[in-house]
Design goal:
By secondary structure, this protein is an alpha/beta fold. It contains 9 helices and 10 strands.
Amino acid sequence: MIPSDILQKVHRIEIRTKSILNTILSGEYHSVFRGQGMEFSEVRSYVEGDDIRSIDWNVTARIGEPYVKKYMEERELTVMLVVDASASGNFASVNKFKNELAAELCAVLAFSALKNNDRVGLIMFTDQIETFVPPKKGKNHVLRVIRELLCFTPQHKGTNIGAALQFLNKVQKKKAVAFLVSDFLASGYEKPLQASARRHDVIALSLVDPSEKSLPSVGLVDLYDSEAGEYCLVDTSDKRVQQEFTRQYESRTASRSSLFKSNGVDEIHISTHEDFIAPIVTFFKMRERKLRR
């Protein structure tokens, strides 16, 4: 049995997502994520101006007058949600935890896929693959994916992005749109990312909390590493400590962005203290401009 509070959350997310799709993201998803090619639809009589390369010579010879092949976009896509469920997601200094933000983000993406009759799959990982929901179509399946995101309790605390990407490549042989949702507080996933980016359209959704960017001056503080399970006493009023904290954040961010760019992976920055719709819309518009070039 699914707890009533989870069902209520699913219902609220569904209502909010429908509103977002109908008013803000209407048509955006469809225009940005196109089908994987063209498939044969039918033949019709040749009319002046048609490309002679599209003539179906077998039908033309049989009927005695020119006919051309008509194609339509192969619309169906597979959307894979690859979600970091490690212990660092249980963190927030404002508004909501990163794992709550990840669930809402994935709900919008899943319902966008549903609206376009695309298949949706889910991979949740820590330093292990924790949950895999094979891609399928339909509203009931999308609701199941969202329930998994909201109900999930990980068995491990660490993060292994490389293992998650390797698993994605193993279970998803055909090209997919893969949303990699994480705070990316990990390393060593360069080669698996490169392999995934060659096969799939990988989009990184980088989650961050404002307190991870700069250290507020509040004196001596016990900082807890939720993945390592360790405490560290830090003097947050020390200017050198503040500067080093910010420097390390900026260095990690720049290095990660450079890695994504070199592999053709688009990155969307999402913060826990802001509404995530604006960055998503900005991304869609950027993708649309690229397609028009």
